[in-house]
Design brief:
Helices cover 40% and strands 22% of the residues. The protein is of the alpha+beta class. The protein has two domains: 101 residues, no CATH class; 151 residues, Beta Barrel (Thrombin, subunit H), CATH 2.40.10. Strands 1-2-5-4-3-12 form a six-stranded antiparallel β-barrel. A six-stranded antiparallel sheet has the order 8-7-6-9-10-11, with no helix packed on it.
């Protein structure tokens, strides 16, 4: 009986203590936080050193704990890479099969073409002399579109020569210095390039208009051109070789036909100048007769 009364008295004392602890716990924690703030202001160096020591002590533990996570991530990446490589391998096999078929067809056409040319006594075109130059400045403005390249007369560059890139036609040489030259872009208002619409065979002129989208002019009104048709050089005039891509038709209506060039002029860093040995396409400025005069 005495033991029971003693246990009841202890339990009765514990209840008030727990209540008081719950009431003053928040105040105690607030006071501790305030004290730590004062201590951090007073002893900044000591706290920083203590923080460094704690971080150095915990770093190995964190490194060990992170290894299973890294291992799981590596396994996940390996599995994903396996499936990606498997799919890529299948795609490359299919592409390789297609390329082999096209190669066989190309060889047959090459033999047939050579035979037909031999029967017709075809005179092959001479390969042009080419110079590769770097674009060093964009000298264009609101009224003209041109680029400056670091090749000039000492590199056999002349006015009127064709300028191309890997993607297609860029323009033609308009001015030549000893070490540099200015290229008139196909988007310039003064640019005219003889071309052909591949899908229909219609001969057209790609005309610059000082915008990023030149126009297709002199196209027959009943021509069935449509958006997406490719336009290439026709070779007329001897400046551009036939078959160079110029752009794709991006708008085709009764009022106008707009071309999207294949070359991104804004990102062009290098250009190739082609010399076919054609003279007289663009005479020197001093030989151009003035307006209103006769020769």
């Amino acid at each position: 009986m005495a033991k029971r009364n003693a246990s009841m008295s202890v339990a009765g004392l514990a209840v008030p203590v727990r209540i008081w602890a719950q009431r003053f716990a928040f105040l105690a924690l607030l006071a501790l936080a305030f004290a730590l703030m004062l201590l951090s202001k007073a002893e900044t160096g000591a706290l920083q050193q203590a923080r460094v020591v704690i971080v150095d002590s915990v770093a190995p533990v964190l490194s060990v704990l992170s290894r299973p996570v890294e291992a799981g991530q590596n396994v996940s990446r390996s599995v994903k890479s396996f499936f990606i490589v498997h799919a890529e391998n299948d795609r490359l096999r299919q592409e390789n099969d297609r390329l082999l078929r096209w190669m066989q067809t190309a060889r047959q056409l090459e033999v047939e073409n050579a035979t037909l040319r031999a029967q017709l006594e075809y005179v092959p075109e001479s390969a042009p002399r080419a110079v590769t130059a770097r674009v060093i400045a964009d000298t264009g403005g609101a009224f003209y579109h041109s680029l400056l390249i670091n090749a000039g007369a000492r590199h056999f560059v002349q006015r009127g020569q064709a300028v191309v890139s890997q993607a297609g036609v860029v323009g033609r040489v308009a001015e030549v210095g000893d070490r540099s030259a200015r290229v008139l872009l196909l988007t310039d208002l003064n640019s005219r390039i003889p071309a052909i619409v591949e899908s229909t065979g219609d001969r057209v002129i790609v005309t610059g208009n000082n915008t990023n989208w030149p126009s297709v002019t002199y196209l027959a009104s009943n021509s069935p051109v449509s958006v997406g048709d490719r336009v290439v050089t026709s070779g007329h005039g001897g400046v551009f070789p036939p078959g160079l891509p110029i752009g794709m038709i991006s708008e085709a209506s009764e009022s106008r036909i707009v071309l999207q060039p294949t070359v991104e002029i804004a990102r062009l860093s290098e250009a190739r100048i082609l010399d076919y040995g054609v003279e007289g396409i663009l005479p020197p400025p001093e030989q151009v007769p003035a307006v209103g005069t006769t020769q």
